[in-house]
């Protein structure tokens, strides 16, 4: 049986799109969590971190209800002419963004908090506006957090199973990602194909962990 690359490319596409969306949405959220003094910000932070402790199937089940034809998200998407999102690539992106959100937001939040108030205060004395301080000071100083968040978000999306299976199903070329393909081959007792996919994910995971260690070591040297 020839090797099927389609789940691999679909998984990489999903991880890339999800990481970009997470960086766009997670950056302002992380900034607010790091800077806000609202008493309820930790409730928001706990909500963001909820996927860390929730079983993926539970999260996928409620996303399925939320985005289904009778759910509020499904009704909104249908009213906008987008149809329903479950069992589509767009639905996979939504589920992946929710599931991987804490892996991107938390490192960026930590980086924003670690830089302290001093750099922003100095920039303010030089008449830098809020946007200039954010773009010219905060973002460069928080670069390690962005790199860590991007790597973790990408890798976590690649390894998803429960959420993508619940919200996307198993449609070849549309929602059948790598983790689902492994499950299919194991269920069919097709061990060689499962070994190829699973072995590739093991090597990928090792490369991600190694890259994280090397990146952290390099950044520590630059910082010192």
Question: Quick recap of the structure?
Answer:
By secondary structure, this protein is mainly alpha-helical. It has helices spanning 6-35, 41-49, 56-67, 72-79, 89-114, 118-125, 130-141, 143-158, 162-168, 178-187, 191-223.
Task: Explain how this protein is built.
- This protein is mainly α and 224 residues long.
- The chain has one domain (6-37, 45-223): MetI-like (MetI-like fold, Orthogonal Bundle), CATH 1.10.3720.
- It is built from 11 helices and no strands.
- α3 runs parallel beside α9 and α5 (89-114) runs antiparallel to α8.
- The mean pLDDT is 86.
What's the SSE blueprint?
Elements: H1 6-35, H2 41-49, H3 56-67, H4 72-79, H5 89-114, H6 118-125, H7 130-141, H8 143-158, H9 162-168, H10 178-187, H11 191-223
Helix pairs in contact: 1-5, 1-8, 3-9, 5-8, 5-9, 6-7, 8-11, 10-11
């Amino acid at each position: 049986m020839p090797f099927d690359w389609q789940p691999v490319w679909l998984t990489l596409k999903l991880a890339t799109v999800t990481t970009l969306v997470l960086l766009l949405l997670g950056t302002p959220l992380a900034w607010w969590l790091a800077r806000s003094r609202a008493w309820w910000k930790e409730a928001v932070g706990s909500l963001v971190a909820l996927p860390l402790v929730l079983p993926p199937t539970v999260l996928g089940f409620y996303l399925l209800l939320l985005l289904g034809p009778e759910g509020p998200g499904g009704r909104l998407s249908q009213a906008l002419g987008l149809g329903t999102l479950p069992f589509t690539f767009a639905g996979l992106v939504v589920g992946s963004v929710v599931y991987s959100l804490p892996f991107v937001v938390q490192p960026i939040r930590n980086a924003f908090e670690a830089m302290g108030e001093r750099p922003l205060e100095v920039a303010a004395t030089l008449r830098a506006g809020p946007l200039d301080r954010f773009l010219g000071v905060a973002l460069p100083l928080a670069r390690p957090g962005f790199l860590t968040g991007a790597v973790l978000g990408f890798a976590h999306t690649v390894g998803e199973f429960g959420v993508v299976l619940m919200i996307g199903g198993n449609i070849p070329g549309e929602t059948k990602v790598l983790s689902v393909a492994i499950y299919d081959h194991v269920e069919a007792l097709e061990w060689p194909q499962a070994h190829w996919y699973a072995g590739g994910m093991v090597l990928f995971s090792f490369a991600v962990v190694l890259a994280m260690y090397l990146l952290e070591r390099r950044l520590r040297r630059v910082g010192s």
